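Good morning,

Attaching, inline, the backbone tokens for the sequence recovery test we're adding to the shared suite. The designed sequence is right after.
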């Protein structure tokens, strides 16, 4: 509330302190036995946060396009939708389901710590990655055919990589498994950053779209039976 009465750097400083207290408090003070969590509701709310962030990416497409819908802008918008769809699929197809079930199976302090780590903390890099990608996407659509400056190029590739890295940590904390395809995808996206500042922005976006699409396609094809078991456990028998 104090930040509402301040301006500029003072407001930012108060927000930083508030965030530090919010995120570091449970680590420094610890989680007591009085913590109670409704796991399904808790997981659902964090999923909605991811949806809101993805929605901002779609808004970035419209904001970047403006009113001049030339061919390059239309192609960039389509590629942006491909990436956003891939990011949605990576979270909601099986990752969110696996994590929610693990949270429901845990109890007591174990459940509270799992909720803190997997949701309170590890959703932050995923949301930050989506926001960064949206920044790079807006700049790409607004400057189709030109090369990106360093900041939007890093945001476009690095933001998507950060989202995948957040996924890797999220899934490892909830399932104790490393999802190698997403790891390879994150490394590939980070490797694209140097190229993204030298090639046309549309080409950089196409490469990001290709990496995300390949990760999704590989998981769909290679693990189709496992995905059915996760999504429809009643058919497992």
């Amino acid at each position: 509330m104090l930040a509402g009465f301040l301006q500029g750097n003072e407001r930012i400083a108060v927000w930083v302190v508030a965030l530090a207290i919010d995120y570091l408090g449970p680590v420094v003070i610890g989680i007591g036995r009085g913590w109670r969590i409704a796991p399904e509701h808790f997981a659902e709310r964090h999923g909605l946060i991811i949806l809101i962030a993805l929605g901002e990416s779609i808004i970035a497409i419209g904001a970047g396009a403006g009113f001049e819908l030339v061919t390059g802008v239309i192609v960039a918008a389509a590629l942006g939708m491909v990436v956003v769809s891939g990011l949605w699929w990576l979270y909601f197809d099986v990752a969110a389901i696996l994590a929610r079930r693990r949270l429901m199976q845990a109890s007591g302090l174990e459940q509270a710590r799992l909720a803190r780590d997997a949701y309170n903390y590890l959703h932050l890099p995923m949301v930050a990655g989506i926001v960064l990608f949206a920044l790079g996407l807006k700049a790409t659509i607004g400057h189709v055919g030109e090369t990106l400056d360093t900041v939007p190029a890093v945001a476009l590739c690095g933001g998507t990589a950060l989202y995948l890295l957040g996924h890797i940590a999220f899934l490892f904390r909830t399932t104790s498994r490393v999802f190698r395809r997403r790891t390879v995808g994150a490394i590939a996206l980070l490797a694209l950053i140097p190229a993204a500042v030298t090639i046309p922005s549309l080409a950089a976006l196409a490469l990001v779209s290709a990496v995300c699409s390949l990760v999704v396609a590989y998981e769909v094809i290679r693990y189709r039976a496992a995905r059915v078991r996760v999504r429809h456990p009643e058919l497992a028998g």
